[in-house]
């Protein structure tokens, strides 16, 4: 009867809507032309004050591995969203306050999917694409019927977990769709014009039915159990009536007391194994013949509510649950990837992890595999190190390093591992840059054939960068470039007498020539030298001029000898020898056979110890002091002065001979 009433009501509503020009929309309150909508709290026509959105970010720095609680989801929460802020090796876990694991419990990682818990269905997502940066997430519509706890299985630094859910407030009104109404009840606060008479008729018939129930057969169910049975509505029609349409008052068919509801079998089990569910099927039958008749013959309000019954309780066969492959351990070249393989069984709509032996009838899939995203490029050293950029001191040298692909092409450096790149530049130390005077040998000829003249040599200060000899800087003590020479006296007459030009002061390059200019008196066969003023009335000839015989080419230059390494018993001293060209640059064109010696012996005489009258042995057994090496102490050094001194001289001579 109630169903028939609803069908007629819906037909009236549909006719009224189609009759209105343009057609008006129906709000969430089922009123035609209403503009009410459901707010974020799920309340029809609400103002978003009937609930509270709880959100935050869990950013605590965790130090120990394992399960760490993130947030508590209270009972009644809806629109639940728990999401990692960035991809990581951590996992999210969910369990009830009673301790029952829902997702990723007991160190077992579940596959992404849907999991029931807390009275709602959670969707577990775990993006696994290599390019994806999204983290794990739990999503559920709710509401929850118990308190749930969200955990993080901590394995690496926490990237942050964002949580959000909605809870209803104290001033919230009943959300979503209005409840089903009995025929004749107020429709959104409005009563139909003829609904009251219908209601009275219904009450009268119900009273008659109740009288029959009290004395009828035991197969009839009470109306209390029928009140929770959901009403099925015809497809395509709304289950509520708009306020501006008055429903007709159809006369319900008269129900006979000869019929009642009876269970005729059950529905098919929802699963073939692992505990499913089924429901009893109730049909309207004749009380005496038990013959099935149309449901309109029975009181729909007396129809029992089908209660869920378990079925197929035996567990399903175990199976291997295969997880997704992890990312390749290497971006190029041969690497490894892993996946989780767990033995599972389905029971009571839950997938449970069981001992591996239960899957022994099946071949276990591989948990590791090789992988190669691409062939790696490698570094190649194309050239040797160059010479140092400076002749002395600290400079740099370089070499050519390229990134080469597996087919031999030069590619960008980013294609190779930058951490393994060989150095292509490094410092080089060529030793200290010292300076020394370099000298040529004295010229062989004197500048004057008779009388006083000079011999010359070349002197140049050069940087010493190819030797580690103990030479100091050039300083101000420049060696002389000329030295006097005398080839004997000359004779002449009263006049300026100019001698022949001397040989050039140097055998090559730019030098000077000297000649003697004197005032003489020429006698018959002799010359008398006079004071220069005696010839002052005459023009004095030049006594010096420049000369240039030929380009020098390369010539050996050498420094002065260093100090002898020992003052006696034979030492050595050294000097540096260079081959220099005309412009005083290094050359390799000198004759090697004419190269001056760079090292020679010196001070070959024996060392004579100085005799100190105060240095004597005070004890007869000072030789024991020397053998025991006690001379380093002042007391023994004084008490056995002579023995300690001789021992020290022998030790010094031994070191010098090595």
From TrEMBL:
Q: Where is this region: Disordered?
A: 174-262
Q: Where is the composition biased (Basic and acidic residues)?
A: 232-243
UniProtKB keywords: Extracellular matrix, Hydrolase, Repeat, Secreted, Signal
**Alphabetical list of Pfam families matching this protein:** ADAMTS_spacer1, PLAC, TSP1_ADAMTS
Would you indicate the residue range of the signal peptide?
A: 1-19
Q: Which GO terms describe its molecular function?
A: metalloendopeptidase activity
Q: Name one GO cellular component term.
A: microfibril
- InterPro entries associated with the record: ADAMTS_ADAMTS-like (IPR050439), ADAMTS_spacer1 (IPR010294), PLAC (IPR010909), TSP1_rpt (IPR000884), TSP1_rpt_sf (IPR036383)
Q: Where in the cell is it found?
A: Secreted, Extracellular space, Extracellular matrix
Q: Which GO terms describe its biological process?
A: extracellular matrix organization; proteolysis; supramolecular fiber organization
- The PLAC domain extends over 611-648
Q: Which domain of life is it from?
A: Eukaryota
Known PANTHER family for this protein? ADAMTS A DISINTEGRIN AND METALLOPROTEASE WITH THROMBOSPONDIN MOTIFS PROTEASE, THROMBOSPONDIN TYPE-1 DOMAIN-CONTAINING PROTEIN 4
What is the recorded function of this protein according to its Swiss-Prot or TrEMBL entry? Answer: Promotes FBN1 matrix assembly. Attenuates TGFB signaling, possibly by accelerating the sequestration of large latent complexes of TGFB or active TGFB by FBN1 microfibril assembly, thereby negatively regulating the expression of TGFB regulatory targets, such as POSTN.
The protein in question is named Thrombospondin type-1 domain-containing protein 4
Source organism (scientific name): Zalophus californianus (California sealion)
